[in-house]
Task: structure prediction
Amino acid sequence: MLLGDEAIAQGAIDAGLSGIYAYPGTPSTEITEYVEHSKEAREKGILANWAANEKTAVESAIGMAYAGKRTMVCMKHVGLNVAADAFVNSAITGTNGGLIVVAADDPSMHSSQNEQDSRFYGKFALLPILEPTNQQEAYDMVHYGFDLSEKYHVPVLMRITTRLAHSRSGVVPKPKRAQNEMKLPEDMRQYVLLPAIARKRYKLLLGIQSQLVEEGEKSPYNVYIDGNNKKMGIITFGIAFNYLMENYPERVVPYPVLKISQYPAPRKMIEKLCNECEEILVFEEGAPMIEELLRGYLNKGIKVKGKLDGTLPRDGELNPNIVAGVLGIKEAEPLTVPEVVVGRPPSLCNGCPHIDTYLGLNEAIAKYGKGRVFSDIGCYTLGALPPFNAINSCVDMGASITMAKGAADAGLVPSVAVIGDSTFTHSGMTGLLDAINSNAPITVVILDNSITAMTGGQKSAATGKVESICKGMGADPEHVHIIKPLKKNHEENVKIFEKELAYQGLSVIIPTRECIVALNKRMRDKFKDKKEEKV
Amino acid sequence: MKKDIILAGVGGQGILSIAAVIGYAAIDMGLYIKQAEVHGMSQRGGDVSSNLRISDREIYSDLIPRGKADLIISVEPMESLRYIPMLSADGWLITNDEPFVNIPNYPEIEKIHTEIQAFPRHLLVSADKMAKEINAAKSANMVILGAAAPFLGITYDKLEKAIRMIFGKKGEEIIQTNLNALALGKDFATQHAQ
Result:
């Protein structure tokens, strides 16, 4: 019984992986966690590394693949924005050892700030994309993906979405294979993207595109299933196939169906479907990427139904009911939720250090009025909700510091940035350097709970380093404070916030106290160890 | 054979351990299974649910279609009601009666209980209380699972075996406590389910 994420991880271990790099992000985190905690991976000397951010992770992976080893790098969809520079250029350098980049998308935004579709990145970079339909395919496709990557010497993008990432099912394993030996690229200038070399490399990448389309035509993951009723042809991408089949209990769809899980999409198969059927219904989990291609901007050719003509909702994830509705399959009127039921939003845990920080900051900043606190991505984003109502922004990793600087540049003084320790080393450090260099009149609050908490407690690259990083980059030591966010220190902490909010230059306040969930877990483990010692 | 089950509760209440026992037992019976979980932000004290699907044929969707669930199993009474649109017309609602209050506007518990009792097929289980009475305060989950046992399409001995496997490392005492809690729930269901 493996989660989709875990199936990818076990698939990688079995397919001869040498190292996996990642920055945690829902719904991708469990891939790297699985390898990190796998005894088998440890025994095989497979590296599992939490990188400072997705860009450093992809770059490390490019380096490991340069040395001939099979490598995987994992992130959530928005992480691929951070890593985009490395990712897109890795298509130009090509790869030596097999390289799979996994991007886990989050349609419906269960734990994200947007629902961008990572397949666009694959198309943009001219790389093959694999989009597994279920846990078994997720497992199998890692073997297949490494082969594809090593055959064409290019990275392969694997795109999954939340439902597959976080759903369990039985998986049948394949025979295990050994890791690659270390081996340098045959062309020692392959990775030197000077314009003259890059132009040659780009031509090579363009040159294999028709072969990649051919790979899609013969892929075992792209399947044409004929049907009697040619009034309509259906194309499904990735897990959308499951929602279609769910609506036919006898597993027979009356219409021809083209199930696609490998890109570039198979052109001949699509052409056959379009020639044989009067209209085409497209089910894509995410953006209408292929639908738009089929339809064309002027929509004068094939009759296509999907997300662009309102047949399907434009946003949110698909589900069996949406698909049933489009196919005209009737369902009984569902019962309604009784009125007595109220919402239960997520909240900061009892004993969370962020609670004391927000109570202190709220009190100190009250006299300046609302709308001055720029925040970031982590548990502390929950400070936006009552009873705190403490923050005014959450945009992207690291944006708190730079947005506070920009707002201060515009005259909003004081402005405050609130950022976690792991987010700070992910993408906040360079912004802080900007702020230090211009001595921006902002107060940067770095919440140091010594862990990446929101994603379940992965090691933070910042642990034990936040103060020295700030001072090392040139923050005035007079205006760098470490405080302990505890109820008993409230008055004292408010005074420090007040003093630095009044200061007309850059200040840093580092509330430092371990995440309560991490602390409880550490204590439980300690107790367990002691108990085992006694036995 | 096909059972679609919604597991419900609040982040941190451990609905996944119920899922693990059912899942292990189902696999032991040679059945197909899919189980969609909630990870990430909602786990911070928010409402959480899991879609657990068991079948003797291959299962496609990870999500249970609305109005098709055979069972809602909940460790928290208000949470059991949140997923009512998922329940089929002849489905069972099986829930703990003990509220988990972590929001300021939690409704009066009597109103919640009244709504649950309005369902023709429901079991409102005092799982916390029953578990405490046998010194198994941490096993209220297993009482709820026991109460659901007759509806799962899984034989009782397979559930017992799954508990032995899953709690195996924790020693015989913990296994026995959980088995006792399971039996208590099953007896309750036998007496009250009609």
Q: What stands out?
A: Residues 92 and 200 of chain A are 9 Å apart (CA to CA). Chain A touches chain B through 50 residues (CB under 8 Å). The radius of gyration of chain A is 26 Å. The first helix of chain A runs from residue 4 to 14.
